[in-house]
Amino acid sequence: MFLPRKWEMRYPRKVWVLGFGMFVYLTGMSFLWPLITIYTTQQLGGSMRIAGLVLMAYQGAGMVGSLLGGMLYDRYGARRIIPIGAVGTAVFVFILPWIESIGIFAFILSLSGVCINVVFPIMYALVGERRLTYCT
Q: Which residues span the membrane (predicted)?
């Protein structure tokens, strides 16, 4: 790896893999905000105020998803919840381009926000666990 030797020895390889996966995931997700704003204003005909409200609903749903993800991880574990969050995200994001109503767009986008953010507390909990059972 391209990191100082003392860092490599401090964290197991699985933590680095998980961290790299989160980096890729978050980088991809960072493209959503400008694209959602452009799509809401130019394709759906909404104002910038409406685009801001859509993004606010998306992030509010994301906070709910984070809380839900932590609760579901404690109850069912990572192996069940991460794939559900990933598939739910894929399904809802796949539907978005065919929606022509801003209200329905905001609703489906909020559902995708829940699914996307279900994964984050699980990833952080996996790093906190010394065993990293999901990655083995």
A: 15-36, 48-69, 81-99, 105-127
Q: Tens-of-pLDDT digits for all 136 residues of the chain?
A: 566 665 555 777 777 887 888 788 788 878 888 999 999 999 999 999 999 999 999 999 999 999 999 999 999 988 889 899 989 999 998 999 899 999 999 999 999 999 999 988 888 887 777 555 555 4
Separation between Cα atoms, residue 46 and residue 51, nearest integer Å: 7
Question: Domain residues for 35?
Answer: 12-131
Please indicate, yes or no, if residue 37 is contained in any of the structural domains: yes
Q: Tell me how many domains the chain contains.
A: 1
Query: The whole model's pTM is what?
Result: 0.78
Return the C-alpha torsion angle 90, 85, 21, 106, nearest 10: 60
